[in-house]
Amino acid sequence: MKNLRDLLLNPLKNQRDKQPKTKGLPSMKKNKRGIELKTEAEIEIMRVAGKIVATVLKEIQEITKPGMTTGDLDAYAENRIREMGASPSFKGYHGFPASICACINDEVVHGIPSPKKVINMGDILKIDTGAYYNGFHGDSCISFPVGKVKRNAVKLLEVAEVALYKGIEQVKAGNYLMDIAIAVQDYVEKNGFSVVENFVGHGVGRNLHEEPSVFNVRTKDLPNVELKAGMTLAIEPIINAGKKETRTLKDHWTVVTVDKQLSAQFEHTVLVTNDGYEILTQRN
């Protein structure tokens, strides 16, 4: 298992760099300029990128029905992203072959969409996607039930979404990354679930993954960075119904829970402001 720092440098775990880089996307090299504070003009571009991502995720949730495949949703997402004048951030990124990550039930992150992967009634579906627009990225993830699901699944989804907003509420200039992590971890564990520790959020902007690492639990392994106005962060707690531990499947991408229990994730791209925050990927 890679440590958190390695996960930031290689955020799509165990990547295979065999595919050509998607045309129009920036270099996949680690951003060496440190933590960038966005200008107002850059923030406005990121608002557009965020709106594109939010629109796609909202539409995917609306159209998803039992019997569809995750490949269907991937094709829809790519088409809509391009229709709105952007490029899919994920496709070709470190060789990832699709425009969305699609995870079902015990799949945690980086699920590869497939025309053979059928969505069934009672599933929990997680869709993560990004859009690259005019030099900047937006990044967001939603989890939702397909039809009626069990009571524990409903609770998991509710806790995972509230946990994201508990973290976001700590975002303002002068606070620290640890404030986000404490808010997320305490809320999740109080409700009887676990936080996946070996995947973290990140800065986002010119590059899909930038500094800083946005951790979701108390840690001494990563810098406890002070938040400053103009930072843009992808905050993305991943919550498991059972144990926090995960493993990676033979496709070298899809990560699942070790105990086959359900997992849920919510993510927003968030701008740090002097008096709080602005969610750039808000769906409502």
CATH class: Alpha Beta
- Assembly of the depicted chains: single chain
The helix content is 25-40%
Low-confidence stretches: 1-32
Strand content: 15-25%
Please provide the count of β strands.
15
| CATH topology heading | Creatine Amidinohydrolase
CATH superfamily: Creatinase/methionine aminopeptidase superfamily
Number of domains: 1
Per CATH, the architecture is: Alpha-Beta Complex
Order of the strands making up the biggest sheet: 8-7-9-14-15
Number of helices: 5
Mean pLDDT: 91
Net shape: globular
Largest sheet entry = 5 strands, antiparallel
Structural class: alpha+beta
List the secondary-structure elements in sequence, H or E.
Answer: HHHEEEEEHHEEEEEEEEEE
Distance N terminus to C terminus? 37 Å
Cα gyration radius (Å): 17 Å
General description of the model:
The chain has 284 residues and is of the alpha+beta class. It has one domain: Creatine Amidinohydrolase (Alpha-Beta Complex). A five-stranded antiparallel beta sheet has the order 8-7-9-14-15. Strands 1, 2, 4 and 5 form a four-stranded antiparallel beta sheet that branches. The N terminus is likely disordered. The chain is 27% helix and 23% strand. It is globular and about 45 Å long. It is built from five helices and 15 strands. Helix 2 packs antiparallel against helix 3 and helix 4 packs antiparallel against helix 5.
What features would you highlight for this structure?
284 residues, alpha+beta, Creatine Amidinohydrolase, 5-stranded antiparallel β-sheet, 5 helices, 15 strands, 27% helix
